[in-house]
Amino acid sequence: MDFQNKLLVHCSGSLPLSVLNVYSENTGVLYPLQTFSKSREVDFSLIPVFIEANSESNENRLIELAEKISGKVAVLDSAKRKSLHIAAVFACNFVNHFYTLAANYLADQEIPFEVLHPLIEETANKATEMHPKQAQTGPAIRFDENIINNHLESLMEYPDLKELYNSISRSIFELHQTKE
Question: pTM of the predicted model, to two decimals?
């Protein structure tokens, strides 16, 4: 492909700027940190946008463009952007997977997932208003073995959930043993 050295930009959080080098001498990244679904609209003015470019001139062009769609624009190199993307996978994709597991488990128990909505909202609000470590609650933080073992016993018919429950509980407990 010949882009005649026009500014070529990708929007990936995990790919380095350098993947575009073979296509153009003018390259950049414009990465909006958000989850997107066809059926949902988002307010781009609230979405942080991270940019990177292979020259100061291209960086300035991307900053100018990004500021037209977002009030939160920052320069972030490929390595830091990859780290941000990994953190986003934990904060979004993995959390959503846990919602799916919870919904499926509740469906098996004939309990509607909607009863968790207020809990999910409060958890998200606390995680954005204070450090998430300070927002952590539940039996795992104090490693309440009676409750944890009782839950694990109840999950005998769900070996994958049981394994996740045990692993995440240990992770939460171990993290809270460290002093900050």
Answer: 0.89
Angle at 41 between CA 129 and CA 69, to 5 degrees: 75
- The predicted-structure confidence for 37-78, as pLDDT tens digits, reads as follows 999 999 999 999 999 999 999 999 999 999 999 999 999 999
CB within 8 A of 77, min separation 6: which ones?
17, 52
Alpha-carbon gap, residue 123 to 137, rounded angstroms: 10
Task: Using DSSP bridges, classify how beta strands 73-75 and 27-32 pair: parallel, antiparallel or unpaired.
Answer: unpaired
Residue 32 in contact with residue 82, Cβ under 8 Å?
no
Where do the H-state alpha helices sit in the chain?
56-69, 78-88, 95-108, 117-129, 132-135, 145-154, 159-175
Give the pLDDT confidence score for residue 155 in this predicted structure. Answer: 97
Q: Return d(Cα 3, Cα 28) in angstroms, integer.
A: 14
